[in-house]
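Give me structure tokens for this 333-residue protein.
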Amino acid sequence: MSKNLLEQLRAMTVVVADTGDIQAIEKFKPQDATTNPSLITAAAKMPEYQDIVDQTLLQAKKDAGAGASQSQIVTLAFDRLAVSFGLKILQIIPGRVSTEVDARLSYDTEATVTKARELIAQYKAAGISPERVLIKIASTWEGIKAAEILEKEGIHCNLTLLFGLHQAIACAEAGVTLISPFVGRILDWYKKETGRDSYPSAEDPGVLSVTTIYNYYKKFGYKTEVMGASFRNIGEITELAGCDLLTISPALLGELQATIGDLPRKLDPAKAATSDIQKISIDKATFDKMHVADRMAYDKLDEGIKGFTAALEDLEKLLAQRLSHLEDTVASR
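Here you go.
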């Protein structure tokens, strides 16, 4: 009898859960887990995780000290909440959790480095080794340069919002641990641009992009891992079977688990090694030129940073409201 697609995928690819929902992580038991501002904000709104939010706020209020303003407390709690979720997730998974730097710092190398060090310090204070944490940074030139600094310090990075080969090559040359090319968001752009409703999975522009990046890395022996992300359907996932890692939403993990059939390997390092690919050297001028020329990558990187920024602002409002509720509850006792 054939196995389900999820079982077969796990035999050739590290399966990662793309969620902040701890119950979903417990259900699917992935090797690693990734979060982002949108996922953390969504999880923070769920009643079952209110205790994590409340504990983080109360500890921040205590640490901020007497006389601290609500804004100061919220800022402190905001910085800690992603780590709070990360710590809960690490109690379940055997591997690594990805925790994202504030998207508003995406074009500031120094500020990104500082924030990443702060996040790692929080994990260390909770007894977690840096080996179990990936710091997520947007794949701007400034973000990639920040990751290059951090990797030399032993802080491992996951470069996200990655849409173009130029971003991927720059990440590999910077010695980044892992990249997250966004399959579904690439498909979204092409559907809007062309007016097409759909693409066959083998012709999906996001699938083709990740395949190109994977083959480039394996051809030239880069150690940076490729983790396909942002999937819209299981066809995109099955076309990337064999990729180093794939980070998948709980809904699509469930669909893979419920589907019986054969899953052939599509990405293979041995095949990539024999492919005819030209090597490209990336400096800032080349990066900028290629980025402007790639309208999809240019548009989606900008849109992604703005989207994560909006989610962060939403989370700050949520924390302020929850803190007011907690303070009112204490005052009424």
